[in-house]
Amino acid sequence: MLEFCGQDQCILDNNGRIKLSISLLRNFQRYSENDVILHCLPEKAIAVYPLQIWKSMRGSEQNKEFNAAQSLVFRRNLRRFGSMSLNVAISNQGRITIPPVFRDFAELTANSEIFLIGCEIGIEIWNQERWRIESELIQKHIFDKGEHEMNSDLIKETIYESGKE
Questions:
Q1: Which of 41, 59, 123, 139 has the most CB atoms in a 10 Å sphere around its CB?
Q2: 118 and 20 Cβ atoms separated by less than 8 Å
Q3: Residue 106: left if φ>0, alpha if ψ -120 to 50, beta else—which one?
Q4: What average pLDDT does the chain have?
Q5: DSSP state letter for 103
Q6: Given pLDDT bands bounded at 50, 70 and 90, which one contains residue 17?
Q7: What is the rounded distance in angstroms from the CA atom of residue 123 to the CA atom of residue 141?
Q8: What residue ranges define each of the domains in the chain, with the CATH number in brackets?
């Protein structure tokens, strides 16, 4: 079974809550009962990770205390993760409440349609217009990469063919 894959649409209610589908609830429960981490992404979306996945992601950094004492960049990174992340519980009704500061960050408005996007290790919550733009960027990137690979192959083939004569 694929975990945290696909796309879903839902409505953000007046209290900043979204309802997760049964399949997403099962995926989250596989990793961490009801605790999830909300994290604001630079792309202006909100990542939702199972607590276990988050601990693995953030726990890979060694000697945090030493690095914090030595590096301004490291301290800024800690601040970014600390201030832009929050532990929340999935309610008994299968809902997640997104705090107002996070809603403002991701430009999520009450009673608007939002997108839940699978990213294999969790999901991302996107404003409808931002997701449309991100989808277009992803497709353009894939197309451009394919074009580059094809051109590279053609150049190699041309060099190979010219070397045969």
A1: 123
A2: no
A3: alpha
A4: 89
A5: H
A6: very high
A7: 21
A8: 7-128 (3.40.1550.20)
